[in-house]
């Protein structure tokens, strides 16, 4: 598929970075950007659609607009209609085109008539196709004469600006119950990052205090999760029991919450499984595939594979009636067999959900960890898996996280609840913070349970991690579904948690290309695309991309930690 993701695809007054800065606008902050592709690569565009750098260039910086008022104005066209900012014309090949609105998450497909209309608008001419033009105006692709092309962008920024003083409303309490684990998985990014690990689990009184704080700063009716993890939480099962019984006691009438435990299942015995099933604790078990795959990287401290014990724990949980899902990390050790492994998981264990996670560097010093995979290969493999299993309702959390806003035409400001002000984490030391990865590194760690400190220390700052503010994201077709990934990954690859998450940036753009192509395949006419054909997908046609997949609260077919206030 050939694409034209030009940052100046609406340059005639339509590029958000070309207009004058408003009077009184804040000086932009400079942040590192994803690695660019050098000039001389296979095309003149970089891998993310922005212009290639000259050979030898080592760094790129971008601006972050401070607020909606600081977004540069785009000169309106007074004598005719004009494309809104953040629109791209994508060449799908064989005479087919897609006009994409990255912020509205809307697409219109068509033949040469659509292409010619867009080129006329770019050139300052009014297209002759009146029916098409009326629809483009109605769908928000085009503003009439005198309209502000960047107005919708500014409106979204103002919507996010207004949340800076909003009190956080938690949807996730993640309890990092312990700093220790009975396994020594090679790519673990929790245990190796813990500063001054301690042998004891989180104090019971601190757990009670944190659970009460979590409920006090959340909406009783809104779905929310108490996620017990570690380290390996079943090493201290008495504290797991304390969390469950305390939360049940402190819950308000109508409290919409459920428990999830993340475990390697090695220590699960009948009494553990019975308790978890009785209290409807959903169990996420880490498994990377059958024994010959799993045991490559998930071993015990003696260097022996753990699969046999993990399998026994899963079966113990299922016999007791506990709900079980599996969580695999996709790396070099299992990428090429991913579809085969997932089919085997479904046939062997019938899990409620399946996490297929993008492997991250275990520590900030291991950016070149050998098991890491290419972001594009990850996206290609993940979406192929989704397409193969969507009619069976297989919930792949990361795919769903990107695909749902695309299907529903909903802008996603943040990719993680840590930036969205919805995540609360507590570690074994009793410290609290928005992000588990930062917490174990003793970063953004608060000792006092104070909602103002939580908001002022992190949430107000991290809200600016949204692509809606980043000048680098101008011209990107995936801007509306991105959310700028993970602050931990940004820190690892750039030294600054406010930077672009390089690898998420890459795989999100690839997901967007795959989604656009899949949607086109759902709506295209048979045979060659007629030159005068155009079509705006209906809600029903868009939902074909999801198949039977849906997020279901109070199950494991639900995102853990990525529900935000968007």
Please explain how this structure is put together.
Its cofactor is [4Fe-4S] cluster. This protein is α/β, with parallel strands linked by helices and 566 residues long. The chain contains 18 helices and 16 strands. It has a domain at 172-373 and 415-464: TIM Barrel, CATH 3.20.20. The protein is 33% helix and 13% strand. The longest helix has 22 residues, at 502-523. Residues 1-61 have low confidence and may be disordered.
Q: What kind of oligomer do you see?
A: single chain
Assign a percent range to the helix content.
Answer: 25-40%
Structural class: alpha/beta
Q: How many strand elements?
A: 16
Radius of gyration: 24 Å
CATH architecture of the domain at 172-373 and 415-464: Alpha-Beta Barrel
The CATH class name of the domain at 172-373 and 415-464 reads: Alpha Beta
Task: Report the sheet-strand fraction.
Answer: 5-15%
So what's the overall shape? globular
Number of helices: 18
InterPro entries: 4Fe4S-binding_SPASM_dom, Aldolase_TIM, Elp3/MiaA/NifB-like_rSAM, MoaA_NifB_PqqE_Fe-S-bd_CS, rSAM, rSAM_sf, Sulphatase_maturase_rSAM
Protein name: Radical SAM core domain-containing protein
Keywords: 4Fe-4S, Iron, Iron-sulfur, Metal-binding, S-adenosyl-L-methionine
Cofactor: [4Fe-4S] cluster
Primary descriptors:
alpha/beta; TIM Barrel; four-stranded antiparallel sheet; 13% strand
């Amino acid at each position: 598929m050939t694409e034209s993701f030009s940052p100046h695809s609406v340059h005639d007054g339509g590029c958000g970075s070309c207009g004058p800065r408003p009077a009184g606008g804040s000086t932009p902050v400079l942040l590192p950007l994803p690695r660019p592709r050098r000039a001389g690569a296979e095309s003149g565009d970089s891998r993310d659609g922005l212009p290639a750098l000259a050979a030898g260039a080592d760094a790129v910086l971008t601006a972050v607009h401070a607020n909606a008022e600081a977004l540069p104005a785009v000169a309106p066209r007074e004598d005719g209609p004009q494309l809104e900012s953040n629109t791209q014309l994508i060449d799908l090949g064989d005479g087919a085109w897609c006009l994409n609105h990255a912020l509205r998450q809307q697409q219109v497909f068509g033949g040469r008539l659509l292409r010619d209309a867009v080129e006329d608008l770019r050139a300052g001419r009014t297209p002759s196709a009146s029916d098409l033009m009326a629809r483009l105006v109605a769908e928000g692709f085009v503003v009439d004469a005198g309209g502000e092309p960047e107005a919708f962008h500014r409106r979204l920024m103002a919507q996010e600006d207004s949340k800076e003083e909003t009190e956080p409303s938690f949807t996730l309490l993640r309890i990092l119950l312990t700093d220790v684990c009975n396994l020594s998985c090679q790519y673990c990014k929790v245990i190796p990052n813990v500063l001054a690990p301690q042998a004891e689990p989180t104090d019971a009184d601190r757990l009670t205090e944190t659970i009460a704080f979590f409920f006090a700063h959340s909406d009783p009716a809104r779905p929310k999760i108490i996620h017990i993890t570690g380290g390996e939480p079943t090493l201290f099962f008495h504290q797991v029991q304390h969390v469950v019984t305390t939360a049940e006691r402190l819950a308000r009438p109508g409290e919409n919450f459920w428990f999830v435990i993340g475990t390697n299942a090695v220590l699960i015995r009948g009494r553990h499984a019975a308790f978890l099933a009785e209290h409807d604790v959903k169990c996420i078990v880490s498994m990377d595939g059958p024994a010959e795959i799993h045991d490559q990287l998930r071993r015990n401290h003696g260097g022996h594979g753990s699969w046999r014990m993990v399998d026994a724990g899963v079966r113990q949980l299922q016999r007791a009636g506990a709900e079980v899902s599996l969580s695999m990390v996709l790396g070099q050790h299992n990428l090429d067999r991913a579809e085969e492994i997932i089919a085997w998981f479904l046939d062997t264990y019938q899990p409620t959900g399946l996490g297929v996670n993008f492997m991250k560097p275990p520590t900030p010093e291991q950016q070149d960890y050998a098991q890491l995979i290419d972001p594009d290969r990850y996206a290609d493999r993940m979406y192929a898996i989704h397409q193969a299993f969507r009619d069976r309702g297989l919930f792949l959390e990361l795919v769903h996280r990107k695909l749902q806003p695309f299907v529903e035409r909903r802008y996603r400001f943040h990719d993680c609840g840590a930036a969205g002000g919805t995540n609360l984490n507590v570690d074994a030391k009793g410290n609290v913070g928005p992000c588990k990865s930062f917490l174990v590194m003793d970063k953004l760690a608060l000792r006092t349970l104070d909602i103002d400190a939580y908001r002022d220390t992190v949430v107000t700052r991290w809200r600016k991690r949204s692509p809606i503010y980043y000048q680098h994201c101008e011209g990107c077709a995936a801007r509306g579904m991105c959310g700028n990934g993970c602050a931990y990954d940004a820190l690892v690859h750039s030294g600054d948690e406010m930077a672009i998450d390089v690898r998420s940036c890459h795989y999100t753009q690839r997901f967007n290309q795959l989604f656009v192509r899949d949607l086109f395949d759902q709506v295209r006419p048979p045979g060659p695309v007629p030159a005068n054909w155009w079509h705006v997908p209906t809600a029903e046609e868009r939902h074909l991309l999801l198949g039977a997949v849906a997020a279901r609260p109070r199950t494991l077919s639900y995102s853990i930690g990525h529900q935000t206030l968007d």
